[in-house]
Write a structure and sequence with these properties.
The chain has 533 residues and is of the alpha/beta class. It has helices spanning 15-26, 43-46, 58-61, 67-72, 82-95, 185-194, 221-229, 231-240, 259-270, 276-279, 289-306, 310-316, 334-337, 384-387, 399-402, 434-454, 464-477, 512-524; strands spanning 6-11, 31-34, 102-103, 108-114, 119-124, 129-137, 159-162, 177-181, 200-205, 212-213, 330-331, 343-347, 353-356, 360-363, 367-369, 372-375, 390-392, 421-423, 460-462, 530-532. The structure holds ligand NA7. Ligand NA7 is lined by residues 142, 148-150, 181-187, 206-207, 327, 348, 376-379, 489, 496.
Amino acid sequence: MKQPDFEAIIIGAGMSGLYQLHRLRQLGMKVLVLEAGTGVGGTWYWNRYPGARFDSESYSYGYSWSKELLQDWDWSEHFAPQPETERYLNHVADRFDLRRDIRFESRVASAHWNEQDRLWVLTLTDGTVFTCRFLVTAIGPLSAPVVPKIEGIPSFKGEAYYTALWPKHPVSFAGKRVAVIGTGATGVQTIQEVAKTAGSLTVFQRTPNWCAPLLNRPIPKEEMAQIRAGYPALFDRCQQTFAGFLHTADPRHTFEVSQEEREAFWEKLYNEPGFGIWVGNFMDVLTNRAANAELSAFVARKIRERVRDPAVAEKLIPTNHGFGTRRVPLETRYYEVYNQPNVRLVDIKDTPIERITETGIVTAAETFEFDMIVFATGFDALTGAFDRIDFRGVDGVRLREHWQGGPKTFLGVQVQGFPNMMMLMGPHTALGNLPRSIEYNVDWVSRLIAFLRERGISRAEATAEGVRAWTEHVRMMGEGLLANEVDSWFTGINRNIEGKTTRIIARYSGSAPDYRKRCEEVVAAGYAELALG
Ligand code: NA7
């Protein structure tokens, strides 16, 4: 067998890739990270659009694996803005001297398994080739930006930006006629910010989303000291909650309490920071249709109270899905933006965009002129980053084809026919508060690789039975979940992409503790559920 250039290659230097590098180095391995960007941070490197920030509490989002790091980093806001997170991840890279093993501006075009030598052969877009024994993908569930299917985009002569590819140079909206297309979590954050200075802002909304207040505020020094003292308890709590957030569902059912109590509880949640109203609500609001309808009606009332023009308010209230069945964007005076004289909402369900021209946007009803168009049109989520690399496993099987109709995985980490490839935050893994899931995922993969190395095992592959059982388990966990009856990136729908118009189960909907329990069973049984050899 030929020896590879590296024992392991990690694709991606975001939150997963950085920690994975650190862990594999601790095992004494020769590791290379290939990163497409010029800096570390992944999501927090690329998404530098105005207003980008956490929707989970900063201190619940940072890494928990280094006491020293927890000691020396202060978060300045409860929900930190992107520049701070990017600084944080750069600080991590420096503190642990990670950069020397990261090759920047290195986009992987293909990764092919070589059965004879039991190694992966990676080719970059510039033709450079590297080989490795173990391949760890740290390519993110929301990292493949999509160009929307709208005619004429390249013809626009003004400034045009994609939120997920935002330039590093400052962009001014002052006095400009700005269009924003898209009203997901990204669009909402962008719109709030652009509205502050734009001469005019026109929002093109296809589907409204149910948004809830973020209620961000600064963290004074004394409060940071208290947070720091409470870190062990805080991370302990995140380990126990359903999705790794500080919030977790209330054990009561919606209709178990009186209407007054219900309203009072929702009022309290609506006035508290973060995802509480989504993941800390009555335990059945995301599964019980009537409960969900009642909660949606409550939030709809809030929108009507906040938006002055009743016609605009109605357009901002979703009618094709209930609260929390798509990702809930958290907002800061988002609805009030539509009370500003410089802001206009265009409902493109009523009057679709026909095309983009040199000077603006033409809808079925009107012609608009703009100085700038911002595309907040989302990602090819969950499987998109995998589709963009030509992964080929045993007998040259393409991952893309192997996953036709939906991903098939073992624990969301391994795929049958793709030996020695481990996925971090791949489809079918517990996502939730990502860094909490990332840390577990990375630790699990590191333990597996350590096990293999200690025993001189050069090949580990998921079995057909392991994949069948896990994929079926993931499907079953999603049964009854209202979110799985709705089109969104959660269900793999993206109408801008051929072949992504049928819902798939790519998201694990069980609890993070249950996910970890199952993964630990696999370890305890000496990885007997994998084909090793
Ligand atoms: P999302 O949540 O997928 O939102 C994309 C938005 O762009 C959404 O409002 C779409 O409308 C809209 N969109 C997409 N394509 C088009 C076209 N062709 N024409 C008009 N409007 C379009 O992406 P985000 O970046 O906001 O958030 C993704 C996740 O990243 C987020 O959930 C966080 O977890 C982080 P649609 O709803 O499809 O009608």
